[in-house]
Amino acid sequence: MGRPIVIIGAGQGGLQAAESLRSAKYEGEILLLGEEKFSPYNRPPLSKAFLLGEMAQDQLTIRQAGVFDKKRITLKTGVRVEKIDPVTQHIQCADGEDIPYEKLILATGSRARIPAIENISSRGVHTLRTLEDTLAIAAEMPAVEKLVVIGGGFIGLEMAAVARKLGKQVTVVEFADRLMARVVSPAVSSYYKKLHEENGVDIILNAAAEKITQREGSVIGVVLNNGVSLDADMVVLGVGVLPNVELAQNAGLECTGGIIIDHKGKTSQDGIYALGDCTAQRMGDGSLRCLESVQNAVEMAKAVASDIMGGDKPFIAAPWFWSDQYDVKLQMVGLSKGYDEMVVRGEEASGSFSYFYFKNGTLIAIDSFNQSTDHMAGRKLLGSENTLNVNQARDMTFNLREALRG
After folding, report:
1. 327-403 — its CATH code?
2. pLDDT, tens only, 159-172
């Protein structure tokens, strides 16, 4: 019997790679290794519906056990891989097991960044990245009155929205001068600052946490670098993630801000692919792009499976993301960074509208608020050549799909 294709990482990307290989009629053995003790699960609801109690734990699970048997995918959970040897094509696990591979797919994801704050390991200080994280937060939440969220990115703000819905007092502390500054335009930052403040969240910008104050090992507050002291029964850290590249780095793979891959998921080492949050994709102009999204992981997994099977289906589609906060669904397609003109389609006061971003007259991104029609049209527009101009984007009577070229 030949060597298996081994996939390290049993998140949505790793699972998709395994299933796509089977769909493409790969007949060999597929081994899917997950470090967490859980079967592959949906991560986005962790900071939304699941934490609110609107979704049961078993609803997070992507595939039931029988599906793995039917598709002949061997899933092993609770397995930590410690070493890759690209020369002999073997991996070494923490329990001493040595596994040979034919092809290797790295879907190791990312982990929550832990900032250098005094007493950061106090009880009641949490990250929100894994199911285990969320279960720990949910278990403590009934006794919490005051929550401090450190970091005003998507995860931090989704956590704040959930906590407010649960009736908690919430303060968000953000180092930058606006919310979600790394990934959204100033207009979107302003919209969300107003939204959260209208829902009772205190937002402190241009500030950083310096110290967690504690009593008998449990958090009782946060001291900021501007001298402000905040009371807290719980602190949630939302200051970004770090790609899990150590395995790849130690194996000699090229890594810069992630495992460097091309549009088919190929790394610098023949026979080794990578996908998802652990990667940095080399673009046509030589720049590197890191995307932390389900779409990126799933679509790159399909590209990897295609390449292994001799196909040619690189992942080049426009990236898209979403976030649910209160009763607002934000859907983003494209990357607005570098835009030189922004127009509003619809009325902001209505709560259903979109921002269209242009650079040198060319559409580069759309942010839609409770406006899925614009978002779906935008995915088509940005996924192919289009002729949309600023005036058409602003004109509510113009059918966006008419701007599709060809």
Report:
1. 3.30.390.30
2. 999 999 999 999 99
